[in-house]
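Morning run. Coffee first, then this:
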Amino acid sequence: MKRFLTLLCGLALGLSVIATDIDLSKPVPEIRLRDGKTIRHVTVMSFGNSSFTAKWQGGRGIVAYSNLPDDVREQFESKRPPPPEQAEVVQTEVQREADPPAPNLQAPEIAVPPERTTFSRKIVGQVFITTKGGTNYKLGAVRVAVYPATTIDKFKEWSQGPGAARATHFSALGDKYSKAQNHDMALYYFDQALAEMHGLSAYLPTPPAYAMTDADGRFTIEHNVPEPFVVVAYAQRRVGDDTERYVWRVSNSQISPSGELLLHNGNMD
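And here it is:
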């Protein structure tokens, strides 16, 4: 009985907190913030001095380190950039405050036809990238979704038009500081532009069918989306101080007759 109670207490404790051993180069399954909000499938895009920028299931934004639970806060704060000289901090803040704010985006109105409940197709595959050294790096916790081709065509039209407003804004500021040979500010805004383009995935409508990759990057999707359809996946990973971002939009014509599909460097957008 005593052993049972000890095990029960251990399980309860494990459910109330998040494991402290977190690999921040990969999506974090769940974070329960101090303000009561729970965010899931959290991918960190950049770390700041007092907060970090991330996207998660159903949204994206800035999270203050002070809003994190104690068991993970230290790990996030350890990724903060080293503090520059005070004069440099003041100058950078003055420059950014003087820059015009980025425009707000309005989500596109794209309807997705409902899928029939009877599954008639199966896609089995794996998501990985091959590094310059020839190592295959498997990508876990990646959402692989199936969309009608018309939905993706409309989304691409929006993302290259109104949806590109914020990325274009940051890119223009990057060009401005690059010409002024202010490389730190230029890199900051170019990174913001890339993050914005990658973050547009949050504006995609809910897919008719999807699956999350396992630790080996493998997935299986059963669906009934009529052809033509597109398999879509977004992923990223930290490499040193940089973030590599990957996008796949693969048409059904590239799926083998057996239903196998590998998402890798060769068919990446």
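Confidence is low (pLDDT under 50) at residues 1-19, 86-90. Good start to the day.
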